[in-house]
Amino acid sequence: MIDTNSREIVLDILMEILEKGNLSHLVLKQALEKYQYLEKQDRAFITRITEGTLEYLIQIDSVINRYSKVKINKMKPVIRTLLRMSVYQILYMERVPDSAVCNEAVKLAKKRKFQGLTGFVNGVLRNISREKEQLTFTSPAERYSIPQWMYSMWEQDYGTEIADQIAASFLEDRPLTVRCNTSRASVDTIRDSLNSQGIHTETSVLSDTMLAITGYDYLEPVEAFADGLITVQDTSSSLVGTLADPKKGDFVLDVCSAPGGKSMHVADLMEGTGLVESRDLTEYKIMLVEENIARCGFTNMQTKVWDATEFDPEMEGKADIVLADLPCSGLGIIGKKPDIKMRLKEEELDELAKLQREILSVVSRYVKPGGKLIYSTCTINKKENEENAAWILEHLPFKKKEIASVLPEVLKKDCVENQIQLLPGIHPCDGFFIASFEREA
Fold first, then answer.
1. Which domain holds residue 207?
2. Are residues 394 and 352 in the same domain?
3. The CATH number of the domain where 207 resides is what?
4. Is 180 part of the annotated catalytic residue set?
5. How far apart are alpha carbons 308 and 323 in whole angstroms?
6. Which residue in 102, 180, 296, 378 is the catalytic one?
7. Burial of 284 by CB count in 10 Å (0-12 exposed, 13-18 middle, 19+ buried)?
8. E strand or H helix at 439, and its extent?
9. Are residues 95 and 225 in the same domain?
10. Does any domain span residue 82?
């Protein structure tokens, strides 16, 4: 039986995210580490309500506003958060009785010194419970719980059917994906290790070194992870290393590398030869990279704290490959980080595209003649993707680098010369854009 304590933990987590603006994946991770003594069932319950409330927040707020005289933005933060997490349970958690949801919400309101609002909380929730079967959502924003401007942008760029598939995909469960470090062990050896711990694995159709894993509790006790045989990475992100296609002995510079997945993939592909330098803006981000390097034991990697907008004269013309996976709007990873839907404003897209061009104009100078520049983002936005790829050809000394020959067979049809836009709901991965360029002599 899930008790009030688990719901109170959820309340605190959601307050940190929704009212204080902290990042959802970090807050949830810290909370699960803090309460790792709880039963697996309780931690799963905490995770499900937290993630579900964030995923369906726009829809939930719409429902609450239909049944409450006090609109969501006028409520006290604790009451607002309590109603949001309770409505998610009522609408989407069939195994939890609605009466229990209502009763526990009232208990929590009292515990947080809102005795005078318990009748309000109870009334709103019981009204929604009674009428939930009659609820309809006419607009895409409500149906898919996504800002209307995002949906409209995708509808304009890809058509209604694909926009629906993209938006719907963000509400689907997705297993964790890991990349096998094949210079450390074979895929079969890694899969056997995972299976021996009761972990189910499924090989990606996009890469035979990518596994979707389910059936584990924490990642840290997983032997293949602790021994550095696997790295957490989405399949779409792993294609950056595939398209970079490094040769043994190459010098590769990853200019915005944290937490280091792409850097380590390239280091893995070079089988201990060459050198990958992983850079990022802050000591904290570089620490994340260094933790992964230490765990995986790569000897052909080094790190450096560096602002990618600042030119480094010592690096000019030195790199065989520059990986430029740049700061972006993150629209392709909403399924993993649903708070992007609440944070991002449409006007920020132009600012991000401009920042990317600023960085590209600097880091492109590090590529040696005949070397490669791999530009990538985890977003679905033509300003940041296709338009910036065209900007590179127009303003920088690069030509298109063909990628179809190194792409998985199932993606060749989606390749446009030197670039590809991956779409969640269409492709079995996050939304991601990759373009490849060769520096002219």
1. 176-232
2. yes
3. 3.30.70.1170
4. no
5. 12
6. 378
7. exposed
8. strand 432-439
9. no
10. yes
pLDDT of residue 32: 92
| pLDDT grade for 218, boundaries at 50, 70 and 90 | confident
Helix axis angle for 4-14 and 40-55, nearest 10°, is: 40
In a domain, residue 408? The reply is yes
431 touches 332 (CB < 8 A): yes
Total number of domains in the chain: 3
> Across all residues in the chain, what is the average pLDDT?
96
pLDDT tens, position by position, 308-352 = 999 999 999 999 999 999 999 999 999 999 999 999 999 999 999
Confidence of residue 40 (pLDDT cuts 50, 70, 90): confident
Residue 343 CA to residue 137 CA, distance in Å, equals 23
Q: What was the pLDDT predicted at 1?
A: 44
Write down the H helix ranges in 212-339. Answer: 223-226, 235-244, 261-269, 283-296
Give domain status of residue 68, yes or no: yes
Instruction: For the chain, give the percent of residues with pLDDT over 90.
Output: 94
Q: Are residues 392 and 251 in the same domain?
A: yes
Q: How many angstroms separate the CA atoms of 227 and 88, rounded?
A: 38
Q: Write out the two tokens for 423.
A: 């779409």
Which of 87, 3, 80 is closest to 41 using CA atoms? 3
45, part of any domain: yes
